[in-house]
């Protein structure tokens, strides 16, 4: 199966002089994120994406690609939604900006009310940010202040999982469990500690042998072990993604979050559900903790809240944590200029309207098994070791030897992922992520509007490219 790239929408392709001008300006001035600049410096240029429509994006040459990553786990309802652009235009004309620093505006109020309705339990208080890392940073700061206000000033440490990504601010980076992303910025904010993740495919390497259900209890109990080792009077919070992103979409084993909730309650430790990726339909519910059956103390979120049409994040907090701030002169001295931006909040409200009107959550729940089945067909390839994930969020782990689960060394991973797969998949018409934060994986998180026909198309491209990759080993 191939992608039809012969006819691009009118105005998509740039003329040669405009392309050359943009490439030169990028080389001279643009500093890309999480990227090696050497490609541009060497004169190879950078792919320039100029248009999006539905689940496709188009580059400056007019070539079409399936957006297999929703931009960056963001574009839940697809590209080119005029309703979202119109919501932004209308709000900008009425009130383009006003801060939430002792003031409010209608769209932030309405959105806070809406998110509180969606959130489980007593998570009724919404603190806006402009992105996910800021939401995580806010949650740690809130946890520290909350315990100071409630007579437990030593509780400041946080526990997260190996290889987990929680953001790039100094605090959030200390919670992140990827050593290679941290070492160049050390010393970091003190207080971050790691426990094993829930990658059952690699459980034996963590020292565990047993069933999936037993693994869930074992992994959760490592959190209790860490709390006891550090001292319950010093640990403030546990930060966990419902489905861990980095490392390749690790879902929680049965019973895992039930046990984690018990542990947090026992030692008065806050459970933070980091749903920057997993919220707003990615796992089939507005909040993934609802889908997985647990109630956290804090939810951190961003990305899909606006489907990426405008930047916005949100930290959603329980009434218990808000209580000390309701009285006297107490304040949470923390905030961001553009947090809860009127235009972003208006876009978010319209995005949520679209998701409800079109039944996006039910669509994900209904089609997720079909997506999994399409990807699991790839397990007949020698290079594919494991397929895992939930909702519209899947990872494919690549191996050298399927029988032994032998993975690639650093040099082999470099050649496989950056030397071949990333470019080959893109050239074949699929934008996704080939990642080696942990073992080598391909990650897929397409817009929540796609269905079985697109699953088959994605599988066909992956099959062709991975088959070729297998011959290069």
UniProtKB/TrEMBL annotation:
CDD domains: OAT_like. The lineage of its organism: Bacteria, Bacillati, Actinomycetota, Actinomycetes, Micrococcales. The keyword Transport does not apply. Keywords: Aminotransferase, Pyridoxal phosphate, Transferase. The keyword Cell membrane does not apply. Belongs to the class-III pyridoxal-phosphate-dependent aminotransferase family. GO terms for molecular function: transaminase activity. Gene3D superfamilies: Aspartate Aminotransferase, domain 1, Type I PLP-dependent aspartate aminotransferase-like (Major domain). This is Aspartate aminotransferase family protein. It holds the Pfam family Aminotran_3.
